[in-house]
Design a protein that fits this description.
The chain is of the alpha+beta class. Helices cover about 40% and strands about 15% of the residues. α1 (about 25-35) packs across α2. The radius of gyration is 22 Å and the shape is globular. It holds the Pfam family DNAG_N. One of its GO terms (biological process) is DNA replication, synthesis of primer.
Length: about 290
């Protein structure tokens, strides 16, 4: 509001309004004041100082692409913390009971940063917007779905699900897998592909397993998130998950940076057998 306290930290170059809880950097400020997106704010500031923006083949300024990418990483970090916090709320008692019934220890749950997406259409959306993100950034991150029926123009991708963060090699959260305990809908849904997440190039748990893979000179590839939790709990740490699909050439290439010995253990169903056969074909092809 106009009469609310408003502060600017010139050292950190951040602003905060205590009335509407808006905050952020110079770009966020311009976006809110001028009611424009990040690209428009960047162009406005560039014009003001007489700077010509260099653009990539998609017409996005290279500096903007880097900025957008960083924001997508930041919103994933925020979402992970939001989901983790929610796992320990009263509303998630049924989720904690389920994880306990599956035999997962609290240390394992914390190590793999499991969380809970609340049973709301706007849980993460509201939290992210109050934290200085905008709808466009939520959509670019794949954490919200566009909709003309909602007030904000989007709704949460994940609702009432156990949340498994997916990390890149360096340990940055780049996507999520969400499991429902309900019967009538898809048991698992995963983040869509974004500028930081390419499914065929990603294996779950690689950031935690890479040192043990090098040490053992072998990697065990399983299908899902909970397989990794169960194996780690038994002290088997040189394992990753292919995120429910047959191994891809890109995943094999990634694993080969740490070992040439790849062992696949997929489920003993038709899909699992097909994935094993396809994986063996690709390994033969890759190793010549």
């Amino acid at each position: 509001g106009l009469n609310s306290p408003f502060t600017v930290d010139s050292t950190k170059q951040l602003f905060h309004c205590f009335g509407c809880e808006a905050g952020g950097d110079i770009f966020t400020f311009i976006m809110k004041i001028e009611n424009i997106d990040f690209s428009g704010a960047l162009q406005l500031l560039a014009d003001r100082v007489g700077y010509t923006l260099r653009r990539d083949k998609y017409g996005i300024p290279s500096s903007e692409r880097k900025k957008i990418k960083e924001r997508v990483y930041e919103i994933h970090r925020l979402a992970k913390n939001f989901y983790v916090k929610n796992l320990y709320s009263e509303n998630a008692a049924h989720i904690r009971r389920y994880l306990n019934s599956r035999g997962f220890k609290s240390t394992t749950i914390k190590q793999f940063e499991l969380g809970y997406a609340p049973n709301r259409w706007d849980g993460l959306t509201n939290y992210a917007i109050k934290s200085g993100f905008n709808v466009n950034e939520l959509l670019q991150s794949g954490l919200a779905v566009e909709s003309s029926k909602t007030k904000r123009g989007c709704y949460d991708m994940f609702r009432d699900r156990i949340m498994f963060p997916i990390w890149d090699l360096t340990g940055k959260v780049i996507a999520f897998g969400g499991r429902t305990l309900k019967e009538e809908i898809a048991k698992y849904i995963n983040s869509p592909e974004t500028m930081i997440y390419k499914k065929k190039k990603t294996v779950y748990g690689i950031n935690k397993a890479k040192e043990q893979i090098v040490k053992d000179d072998r990697v065990i590839v399983v299908e899902g998130y909970t397989d990794i939790l169960a194996l780690n709990q038994e002290g088997i740490k040189n394992c990753v998950a292919s995120l429910g699909t047959a191994l891809t050439i890109e995943q094999i290439r990634l694993l080969n940076r740490f070992t040439n010995n790849i062992i696949t253990i997929f489920d003993a169903d038709t899909a699992g057998e097909a994935a094993t056969e396809r994986g063996i074909e690709l390994l033969k092809e890759y190793n010549g």
